[in-house]
Amino acid sequence: MNNFEWDKKYDVGIKQFDEQHKQLLTALKDIYKAMQDKRDRLALAQIINNLKQYADEHLSIEEACLLENSYPEYEEHVRQHEIFKEKLEKFCEDFNSDKFLLHFELAVFLKNWIVNHIMLVDRKYTDFLNSKGLY
Ligand SMILES: [Fe+2]
Questions:
Q1: Can you list the alpha helix ranges (DSSP code H) found in 5-135?
Q2: In 3-state terms, what secondary structure has residue 12?
Q3: 13 domain-assigned
Q4: Which is more confidently placed, 96 or 18?
């Protein structure tokens, strides 16, 4: 079983982002579970749409915060987000073209991407944002 649970080690030290990252993992878990339970297409479409909306919202909020605080690695960070958004877009496309088998793989891929991004890329802004008084 793939683990979509939140772990303390994913903490980036900025409360609002930690909450949003938790929500992202929960949304992915919901998708994975809905696929396992063979929920109907409409239900899946709804859940996938929720994830996409939530992910776009979160990434925008994070980017706005980094830009506002003149984060030195802003450009690179945004570039990483763009890659993720492309993958997510692909996930939605595959869903719409009935490539069901890909969904499990992609759900796991997206989860791993998020976890890696949090631990390797997001983590880099922790000290920086903390030094700007953000926690
Ligand atoms: Fe990020």
A1: 15-36, 41-68, 74-96, 100-116, 123-131
A2: coil
A3: no
A4: 18
